[in-house]
Every structure is written in structure tokens, then in C-alpha cells.
Amino acid sequence: MLKAGYCNVLIVDDEPLFRLALRTLLSESGLPFQIIGEASDGESALMYQQKSPVPELIFVDMKMPGMNGVEFMRQWKELAKPQENNPVMIALSAYQDYGFVREAFLEGALDYIVKVDMDQPHIIPILNKALELLEKRKQRPAAGINSEVSGKDTMIRSMLEHGTGNEEAQQKLLVDMGVILPEKDRVVAVVLTDYQQQKLDSVASAELIRTVLEQVLQSKQIGAEIVSYHVDEYVIVLHQTEVKSYMYLWNQLNELFTVVQRRLSNYANLTVTVGVSPTGSKPWKTLYEGASESASLRFFCGGGKLFFPDSRKAWEYENTSKVLKESELAEYTQAVLDALNNPDPDQWLKCLNAWSQHGVPAIKEQQVRKMFSDFVWKLGSFMLTKECQWEQLSDPYRNPFQFMEEGKTLEHMWSQLQLLMEAIHMKIHESPIQVKSLLYQAKSYIDHHYGDGITLTLVSNWVGVSESHLSKLFVKDAGVKFIDYLTRIRIQKAKDLMNTGMKLYEISESVGYPNPEHFSRVFKKEVGLSPAQYRDKMEQQK
After folding, report:
1. Taking a C-beta distance cutoff of 8 angstroms, is the pair 8, 53 a contact?
2. How many CB atoms lie within 10 A of CB 227?
3. Strand (E) positions, 170-300?
4. Which residues carry this modification: 4-aspartylphosphate (predicted)?
5. Which of 183, 185, 399, 473 has the smallest number of Cβ neighbours within 10 A?
């Protein structure tokens, strides 16, 4: 008989012994959970969406026969009614399932459990986190997981940002909320999400980072408050640190964030930069500013690193003498502008590389950003002499200042500038006949090799231009992205093969999709029907 007030749990796993082990752990946890069902595959588990009561918490294995865990999570969301809260999902994985767990997080999984670590110390914190989230949903049913900002977080943010004279009163209020912050040996860390070549869902990525931070802090038995500032910034306020020495603290935090980096890399191909404040009894606002200053070194040194206050001092000491003189900067920028007049793109690229290798005129980020901004103004003036304006370029280059501001590191900004200049050079030198010829060659290659492992890199090398150049040609002159054109060709070929008697997985492979599940998702997105549904519809129309 079901108990009122208990959380309804569904276990989805194809291993009976593991389902039994998880059932036992839940019953012995002393927490208010009751199991309303079990399923050995994703398709069977989906039927619980139509039953009463609907599960509030689902443990789902990533690798199962038939429908795997990720596909189950995706379909559950698609079938759910708009007004319903999706159940909390916890992924179950083996060590080798990194790819599946990565996708699970992007589908909204709250956390993951590695099966070999299935014991009370590992599972209890995750269960408590699930209960806390479910309780918040009951109190504010319209709020999602990422819109729930507690009064505690608001209080800590205010203390870090404003640093009023009421810090003592604020800390007393935090004590009432169960948060005890130290009076001395205080430490703050700022965690920044680094630039990713492959864009991921920002909300899902932010939730994953918070989950990993919580897990690692718990495993190291380090008390801390994690406060979200933006989707790409978290602040960690440590409860109590044992500062035997500065080197001891460095080693402890270095070990902590090394684990964080490894897990984020494994599960979502993400990296973060961490800046650590000085230690001491200074106001929390001062410590937060110190941590942010440490993290800002990412601009010059790149992401994926841990920076302490001494890191910036050492870097500035080493690089102050290497700054570019104003006269040298003027020579390099003029050389780049002059080279843009040459139809050969290798000339301006050679000059730009020479400039980037010789450095920048400052060791402060804002001054370096101003250098790039000033040069963009010069590029605009140069374009006017060629009867060309920014509005004539394709997105995102028609808003050059915004495009350059997206650079999170110096290396990234040089890359952005190269892309911007490539677009300008192409605009002022390329004739319509050349564009049509390149596009014809690229499309012809795709039309004849769609069943192979075609990539933008492969096709651009074949026609003899850069990836970004070919990508922009497709958008500007074909009106479609490269990947969208390739997808349309493949799906059309797949539709043509539906009458041949080939099996669906054979069609999938023949049009360039070795993974039938991925083929099915892409086909449904393009056609509105799954491959099986499309074939059935064709049979009915005969």
C-alpha cells in the first residue's frame, strides 16, 4: 500500500540484481521513498507516464537493450504535458558510459551514480538533493530546477557584491539558515565556464557544473556554499579551511579542482577556470574581488587552469617588459591593412600572425580589448574605401564589436579577428563566378559522397578553401548551413530507399548514419515522422 507524503520512485535497469540492490538501499536509507514500479528497458518504463501515481523520481540505466537511458529521458519529456513537472532523473552508469552520461546531463539529469560506488555514503547525498528539489517544486510548482534561487543564495550574493557594514548581521541571518561562515582563514573561489567550440545548452551545462562541484566537495568532506551568478559563473564560499600554510591550501584546492576538471571533461567536454582569493579575515566582498582578479588571468593564459593571487603577480612581473610599443603596434596594424588589398589571402594572414606573435601593448585585459576595438574601427574605415559596409557581411560579422567581445581569452580574440578579416577579404575580392564554382564543387562532392563520413573539414580541403570560408559561402549564397544541406541530402536519399526493401538500419548506414538511433532522431526532426512511421505511411498509400 502506498504511503502518503512519500516520494514515488521508478527503477529502470535491465539487470535484476542491480534493481534489487537499489531497492534495498532505498528501503534502508530511512528516507521517504517508495518504489511504485520497475522496468527492464526504456519502452516499458514509458508506460508509467500513463499510470497513477506518476513517478516523481526515476533511476535510469544508461545502457539497456532497445531504448537506452538517454532516449528514454528524451521521449519522456516529449510525451509529457506542458503543465506537468518532469520527474527528477538520476542516471546510472558504468565507468565506460561517459558518452551516455554526458547526454543524460544535457537532457536534464539531476545527478549520476556509478554502479561500482553503489553504497550508502555515495547515494544518500544524491537522495537528499532529489528530495530537496522535489520539496521546492511542491512549494513553487511553476518554477523549474534552474529558476530556484533560495534566500540563502540571495543573502550570500548580497554579501559578496555589496559588502555593506551589515556583514555581521548578514552572517547571523545565515546562521539561522544553517550556514556558518568563518571569521578568519576565509577563502572564496570563482569558477568560470570556458569558451566551447561546440555549443552546449547553457542551462544544462551550468547545472552539470554545479552538480560536479557539489559532488567533489562532498567527497573531499569540504563544507562550502555554491552560489550561481550567471550561467557561466559560480562562486564557492568555503565554510572552514585548515590553512596550515599557503602551500598546503594550494595543494588542497589544486587536488579538488583537478577532480572537477577531469569529471567535466569526461562527462560534457567542458573546462572551467578557477580563481582563488587571498586568505584571511578581510570582508567577503574584498575576497570575492580578489578571486575574480585571479580568475581574470584566464584572458592571457587560457582556460582550464587554477589561479591564485600569486599567479597574477608572477605573470605580470614576467610579461611587463614584453609589451608591444605603440610605434610597433602602428606598424603591425598598418601592415595587416595593406595586405588586405592583396587578393592572395595568405598575405594578410601572414601579417596578422606576425602581429599576434609579437604581442600586445598592455598587460591589462580592458586595455587589450580596446586595442582590438580600435583596430575594428580601422577595418571599418578600410572597408569604406572599398565601397563596402559591415551590413553587407553575413552574420555574425555585421556586428563586429559584439563579435569580438565574445572572445573570452586573448587567443580566442585573435581567432575571432582572423574570422572577421577573412569575411572582409572574401567580400572585397571574391567574384560571383568564383563563389558559384566553389559551391558547385562542394555540393557535387556531397551529392556523390553523402554515405561516407563527410565533414566540413573534408569538403573544404577537397575544394581548396578554409572551413570558415566554405561555411560562410553556404550560408550567404546557398541560404543554408553546410550541415543542414548535408542532412537534407541524406534524408532525401533515405526516403528514396524506403521502397527498396532494405532494412532501416541498412538505410541508416548507406546514407551516412552508422548509429540507427541518431538516424531516427534526425529523420523525425526533418520529416515529422520516424523512419518506421514514414515507411508505414508509404505502404498505406500504395
Report:
1. yes
2. 23
3. 188-193, 224-230, 233-238, 272-276
4. 61
5. 183
Neighbouring C-alpha atoms within 13 Å toward the C-beta of 159 = 25
Tens of pLDDT, residues 44-88: 899 898 887 889 999 999 888 888 888 898 888 888 765 566 789
Residues 8, 374: Cα–Cα separation, whole Å:
60
Q: How far apart are CA 260 and CA 212, in angstroms?
A: 6
Neighbours of 92 (CB within 10 A): 26
DSSP H or E segment with residue 18: helix 16-28
Query: Is the Cβ–Cβ distance between 287 and 305 less than 8 Å?
Result: no
Please give the C-alpha separations between residue 333 and each of 75, 326, 358, 377, in angstroms, as whole numbers: 54, 11, 12, 12
The CA-based angle 168-169-175, given to 5 degrees, is 90
- Angle between helical axes of 432-449 and 482-497 (0-180°, round to 10): 40
Measured distance CA(205)–CA(213) in Å, rounded: 12
d(CA 174, CA 157): 12
Rg (CA), the chain: 28
How far is CA 476 from its chain centroid? 28
CA distances from residue 353 to 235, 347, 358, 414 in whole angstroms, order as listed: 37, 10, 9, 9
C-beta separation of 179 from 284 below 8 A? no
Query: 78 Cβ partners below 8 Å, 6+ apart?
Result: none
Task: State how far the alpha carbon of 131 is from the alpha carbons of 9, 31, 137, 408, in Å.
Answer: 11, 9, 10, 37
Q: What is the CA 465 to chain-centroid distance, rounded? A: 29
